[in-house]
Every structure is written in structure tokens, then in C-alpha cells.
Write a structure and sequence with these properties.
binds SN-glycerol-3-phosphate, EC 1.1.1.94, globular, 8 strands, cytoplasm, NADP, phospholipid metabolism, 2 domains, N-(1-d-carboxylethyl)-l-norvaline Dehydrogenase, domain 2, 50% helix, binds nicotinamide-adenine-dinucleotide, NAD
Length: 331
């Protein structure tokens, strides 16, 4: 199969490196320097320093050449540029081919999930999302992991499962696309909170409380938006929440940790090459909480830290003063 992947960041490049072993794979990026490096040196030092990429993997910065050949299109750019990059494919994409999102975020303004954007920009194409606890560096290093391909189309699910299941990566299917995508997007907000706990030097009990109550928040909001509550206890909810909150490789956790150490958000982001989706997802989560009448104390306090209304230290103190209520929530 001819697979084209848009976005040669850490995750797009990793997925391309996996599938190129069995499929004719072309990776598109806007950056000609990265194209040259992948084609000539089989490296991507900006996003995956120290990793050798398969020689079979080729890259281009010609969007038409990348897209017009595709039998499967995978989009690996972050959510804030997802619609724009997808829009550039519309004149070239062959009819009806499946389109898979790798992004974990929600669109500002519309609050849409990435597969909903695919359905708007490329109507008629089966849309799917690959999500779950998948830190790119570990997958590229060949460490065992599990992922989920979320789509409502069972034959597309089976086809994508076969294509994406490579080496020690085990791929499940799930038809709760809403739940799977929301788990992937919202866990990044909680990972910022967990990172803050790390930066503040609070204990493991606090971290466990934040992760567990964070899971309750993403389950409440996800279920209110039409996801199945059970999905949030699976790989794309709890699984990804744990990986992101606990891993030193997580960019969202890193942002939280730096804020916990008292640093300013702008300075932290300015020195990061890669995206931390939770920063832009947090205000969307708060707006969605307002729309659905949900308290979401962790999302709200993280938003206040990101906007500079409060500090990480005061945020943690405030959370302690939030009335505890009963634990069993509507999930
Ligand atoms: N890195 C991971 O471990 C991982 C794992 C699973 C999911 N994800 C999700 O995948 C998505 C991409 O993450 P990533 O880690 O690869 O990000 P990254 O920061 O490593 O790379 C981002 C890529 O998007 C490209 N890009 C940015 N703005 C662009 C624009 N205006 N036009 C064209 N290209 C543009 C960059 O050039 C780069 O190739 C995110 O939503 C992330 O949450 C990442
Ligand atoms: O590095 P992060 O925080 O963007 O997390 C990466 C993945 O989403 C983990 O599954």
C-alpha cells in the first residue's frame, strides 16, 4: 500500500518509520532541511535526536507529490495547524481513501476533534484516529506498547489495525471515536497538573490524587460530550494518562514541571522545539466544561496557571481548599 504521512515531527516520523518496513511510505514536511536529512542521512535530529531511521523511509516537501499518490493518508501535525495542513491536501487527495489523525488536541473556536475536522475538510473519506499511550521515543526504540485505532467503520478499522501493528506495537480497535479522541486530548491537561506536582516537589500521594481526579474530570467531560464512560478506563484514557503523567519524555508533563519550579510559561515554551498540546487544549476544556455545566477543578486551575492568573504553588493550595464532596461521580 502507498502511505503518505504529513508532518515529520517526532510522532509522524515514528509512525512513518514503523509502516515503511512493509509499505511504500512517503513523509511530507514543510522543512526542506529535514527532507534532506531523512533522505540522505536517515536521521531526524531536530525531533528524534540519536535515532537511525530506516533507509526505506523517504521524505518530500512537495504536498501534491505526497498526497496525490496516497492510498492511505496519515496526518501527524499538531491540532492548531491540523485544519490548515489538511486543507492543502483537498485538491490532490484521491477519492475515498482513509484519513488517519495522529493528533491529540481540540480545535480552538470550534472545539472540534480532529476526525470531525477531517469529515469537514475531506467529506466522504473514512476518518480514524490513532491514539493511546504511545511516547514516540519508546515506540521508535522498539519497546512494547499498545495503541488504539478509533473509527466507526469496521472494515477500515481492520485494515488499519493490520497496517499499523508492527513489531511490539499492539493495535486494538475501538468504535467510540469521541471517547478515544477526547481521552487523548484531555489527558494532556492532567499531565501538566501532574508535572506541576513534580516541580513543586509534592509527594506521590498528591500525584496519585491528581491523576485519579484528573481521570474523573476527563471521564465526566468526555461522557457529557458523547463518549462512552468505559472508554476512559481503557488505553486511550487511563492508559495514556498514566504514560503522559509519569514519563520524563512527556512534553506536557515537562511544561507542568517547569511551571511547578516557578518558571514563566512563555520562557518554557520558547525553549521547546516540540509541541505540548495541553497548553492549547486547557482553555478549550474549560469552555466545554462551562457548556456542559461541569466543575472540572483541575482543568480550571491549570488554565489559571497557564494564563498567569495564579502560580503553580497557589494552584495546588487552592485545590486543597476545593470542597471534596463524594467520590462517586457520574462516570
Ligand atoms: N510525540 C509523541 O510522543 C506523540 C505521541 C502520540 C501523539 N502525539 C500527537 O501527535 C501530534 C504531533 O506531535 P509531535 O510530537 O509529532 O509534534 P512535534 O512538535 O514533534 O512535530 C510537529 C510537526 O508539525 C509540523 N508543523 C508545525 N506547524 C506546521 C505548519 N504550520 N505547517 C506544516 N507543518 C507544521 C512541524 O514541522 C513538525 O513536523 C500532536 O497532536 C501530539 O499530541 C505525539
Ligand atoms: O509528550 P506528550 O506529553 O505530548 O505525550 C505524548 C503522547 O501523547 C503520549 O501518549
Amino acid at each position: 500500500m502507498r502511505i503518505s504521512i504529513l508532518g515529520a515531527g517526532s510522532w509522524g516520523t515514528t509512525v512513518a518509520a514503523l509502516v515503511c518496513k512493509r509499505h511504500d511510505t512517503l513523509l511530507w514536511t514543510r522543512d526542506p532541511g529535514i527532507v534532506e536529512e531523512i533522505n540522505d542521512k536517515h536521521h531526524n535530529q531536530v525531533y528524534l535526536p540519536g535515532f537511525a531511521l530506516p533507509e526505506a523511509l523517504t521524505a518530500t516537501h512537495d504536498m501534491e507529490a505526497a498526497v496525490s499518490r496516497a492510498q492511505l493518508l496519515i496526518i501527524g501535525v499538531p491540532s492548531h495547524v491540523f485544519r490548515g495542513v489538511l486543507g492543502r491536501t483537498a485538491d490532490h487527495v484521491p477519492p475515498w481513501i482513509p484519513v488517519v489523525s495522529l493528533a491529540k488536541g481540540l480545535e480552538h473556536g470550534t472545539h472540534l476533534r480532529m476526525t470531525q475536522i477531517i469529515e469537514q475538510v475531506l467529506p466522504g473519506h473514512p476518518a480514524a484516529a490513532l491514539t493511546g499511550p504511545n511516547l514516540a521515543r519508546e515506540i521508535l526504540a522498539g519497546k512494547a506498547a499498545a495503541a488504539v485505532i478509533a473509527t466507526e467503520n469496521p472494515s477500515v478499522a481492520g485494515m488499519l489495525q493490520t497496517i499499523l501493528q508492527r513489531g511490539l506495537l499492539r493495535v486494538y480497535t475501538n468504535d467510540d471515536v469521541t471517547g478515544c479522541e477526547l481521552g487523548g486530548a484531555l489527558k494532556n491537561v492532567v499531565a501538566i497538573a501532574a508535572g506541576m506536582a513534580e516541580g513543586l516537589g509534592v509527594g506521590d500521594n498528591t500525584r496519585a490524587a491528581v491523576i485519579t481526579r484528573g481521570l474523573a474530570e476527563l471521564t465526566q467531560l468526555g461522557a457529557a460530550m458523547g463518549g462512552k464512560a468505559a472508554t476512559f478506563a481503557g488505553l486511550t484514557g487511563l492508559g495514556d494518562l498514566l504514560a503522559t503523567c509519569l514519563s520524563p519524555h512527556s512534553r506536557n508533563r515537562h511544561v507542568g514541571e517547569q511551571l511547578g519550579k516557578g518558571r514563566v510559561l512563555g520562557d518554557v515554551l520558547a525553549e521547546m522545539v516540540m509541541v505540548a498540546e495541553g497548553v492549547s487544549t486547557t482553555p478549550v476544556a474549560v469552555q466545554l466544561g462551562d457548556r456542559h455545566g461541569l466543575e472540572l477543578p483541575i482543568c480550571r486551575i491549570i488554565n489559571q496557571v497557564l494564563t498567569g492568573e495564579t502560580t503553580a504553588r497557589d494552584a495546588y493550595a487552592d485545590l486543597r481548599h476545593t470542597p471534596a464532596g463524594t467520590e462517586s461521580g457520574p462516570w
